[in-house]
Amino acid sequence: MQIGTFITVFLIALLVTMLSTPAFVRLAFRHKVVDNPSPRRVNKKATARLGGPAMFLGFIVAMLFYYGKIDAWAGIVAGATIMFLLGVFDDVKGLRSWFKLFIHIVAASVAYRLGVRIEYITNPFGGGQISFRELWWLSYIITVFWIIGITNAVNLIDGLDGLAAGIICIVSITFFLVAIHLDRHTSAILAIIMVGVTGGFLRWNFYPAKVFMGDSGAYFLGYMAAVIAVVGAFKSTTAVTLVIPVLALGIPIFDTSFAIIRRYRQGQPIMAAADRGHLHHRLLDLGLHHRSVVVICYLITLALSIVSLALIKAWALALFLLLSVGVMILLLVVARRIAKKNIDSRGYAKSGR
Fold this sequence. Notes:
With about 350 residues, the chain is mainly alpha-helical. The chain has helices spanning about 5-30, 50-65, 75-90, 95-115, 135-155, 165-180, 185-205, 215-230, 245-250, 250-265, 280-285, 290-310, 315-350, and strands at about 35, 45-50, 120, 130. It has one domain (about 5-350). Helix 2 (about 50-65) runs antiparallel to helix 7 (about 185-205), helix 6 (about 165-180) runs parallel beside helix 12 (about 290-310) and helix 12 (about 290-310) packs antiparallel against helix 13 (about 315-350). About 45% of the residues are buried.
């Protein structure tokens, strides 16, 4: 595949997401889809909670450019659409946990039925592959469990400005590099689209955020991260590459695992309301600044992703990932400082001083 294709779909996803986000912010305030300050939230003022539609729009436009040219196109888009719409209704109306879990199962099942599935796992102890093609029910259970697990894990870490979007951006870069290394066409296209989607959204979501992604964005990002792994690393014939998605998604996976253990030990329902026991909240409670906590989580994700690339001895790709994330963080910090200076200068001018 030519590099021009990757650049094209990346720019489409980036620009559509970045340019459409302000319109959805205005729509959110018009219909009062906002997060107001509360003891559990970190925002100091009412903030729009409708960033998910902008990301989904960027994804769909980029995918239409590549319509029908990647494996399981229909399943990927159908599952993403169901997850996204569920999140929109949850953001606007608020839905019960059991109903959301049911729709998650529906979305993952639709994706599975239309070709997004884990059909085998390479035996880490040798002896070839463990195939699930004869045991379709086991393939179904593993695939659905993975998609639902990652979707909800990403939703749980969406607690600070730019945290979930930035982590998925880094993970998507990692998945893209791994897909190129393994010659996984579908995974590479999806991953570079998600780099553009999350990069465009971070322009408005990085601290201090102008908009939150809401459940619509978190469910969409989590679903896509899970699917990219299914059509990429999980289809590799090398056992060590199975570890790559787990390491790259280390923060959401381990944070969710600890949350389940914590709630079980405290006698709380596993699907209880969100609390302040997550990694990012604990770092905030130590006195760290909001932006510092987010950057620390970025660096942890970067380190885990570099380790995953080191496992397949992709040293040049690991260096490229390091440079890419470094540039991303630098651009985000510089962009926010420029925006702050512009706001300050306009305020100064309006004051007449």
